[in-house]
Amino acid sequence: xxxxxxxxxxxxxxxxxxxxxxxxxxxxxxxxxxxxxxxxxxxxxxxxxxxxxxxxxxxxxxxxxxxxxxxx
Length: 72
Description:
The chain has helices at 15-41, 45-48. It is 43% helix and 0% strand. The protein is mostly helical and 72 residues long. The protein is built from 2 helices and no strands.
């Protein structure tokens, strides 16, 4: 059997440079994806703390609905 012409064809000269660019872009996107996954699914500092101390008030607690002072 003889070898076909496809076995000896060289790729265009711009392919190695384009491949290197695409591999760099893939690496960049994988790093970005990992960062987003850490932001969404990673352990957050807010989740690490236990219950707040009992003396800590909630947002808006103690404000009540005070009457507005009358304007004179």
